[in-house]
Specification:
By secondary structure, the chain is of the alpha+beta class. About 30% of the residues lie in helices and about 20% in strands. It is elongated, with a radius of gyration of 25 Å.
Amino acid sequence: MNNVVIIGGGPAGMIAGISSAKNGNKVTIIEKMNSCGKKLLITGKGRCNITNSTDINGFIENTPQNGRFLYGALNNFDNDSIINLLEQEGVRTKVERGGRVFPVSDKSQDVLNALLRILKKLDVKILANTEVKKIITKDTLVKGVKLNTEEELDADKVILATGGKSYPVTGSTGDGYMLAKELGHTITDIKPSLIPLISQNEECKILQGLSLKNVAIKLIDSDKIIYEDFGEMLFTHYGVSGPIILSASAFLIRYKNVDELLKKGNIRLKIDLKPALTEEKLDARILRDFEEVKNKEFKNSLNKLLPQKLIPVIIEKTEIDPYKRVNEITKEERTKIVKILKNFVISINGVRPIDEAIITSGGINIKEINPKTMESKIIKGLYFAGEIIDVDALTGGFNLQIAWSTGFTAGL
């Protein structure tokens, strides 16, 4: 029996505790917040996007940062594994759009309660409101941890699962990076990922609060497409957010010279408001709508086609007199409407602060971690799990699966 200390009681830390205890070890989880799973509670807007229903290759494809590193961990503990574990504890699951898996109850608390029940059954000790100041080693071998109370705990193995730097109110403040760095590990550049984008365009302020479903986006540098997607987005007072925007941000932060390009305003977001219709079909649709309201003013003619909040913005972009009668609108003006609806463009000038990021990009360099075990190649007996590793994915349950898979593997 090994004496195992896990630093961090998030999803990765808890599943590592379950895995390690089932393996016959004596396990202690040290959590600096007053309880485990604070960040888990806010995932999926409080509904907990547990995982995704795709296969292992799908997970790799949706992990732009070092996805191949995860093959071993995903094979050890995949999406079916976490679903079965939770369902054995009475948490039934469902699959939604894009393969996203949620609890049937739509309550992240149910997922957390299930994990805590399992930990209790396995006699895993949880020390809440406790911080680790130092990982104690001797001759590159783990010996224990030193707490903020100056107390020292002996350990044969230590699993570092402290998360990244996003959502610091949940306890993810980046202190795990310092613990690893002190032991000789390299920390790659820490950046926010899955983060809303900033635009200085006035339209965003006008449209704030407007959610658009079934739109297509392209994130563009000059004529080069950085990312494209289809789905839901949201206008905010500072720019844009929503699922497809968050996924776009994961590619934007990795783009060459991105900071310089953002300052110059070279990055643009092109939105196709009607992706299901070709320009010809959209023109025909507008013509039909116009026929029904031919004696009305232009400003009152787009109600069937667009959300009310969007209409004044589109009209201004067309430069057509809003008071012009619909039956007086020319074919050329109609073509202009179509072009704008298919190519609604705003400039992107930056990303929101890392505190607002769903996930942190960067972390412990994967070259210093054994992908089969999650053990450090520098310090024997030290393991890593979850967001602290330099691996991050798109939205859709992929990042939580990374936590489950790497945590379970470290616990083995």
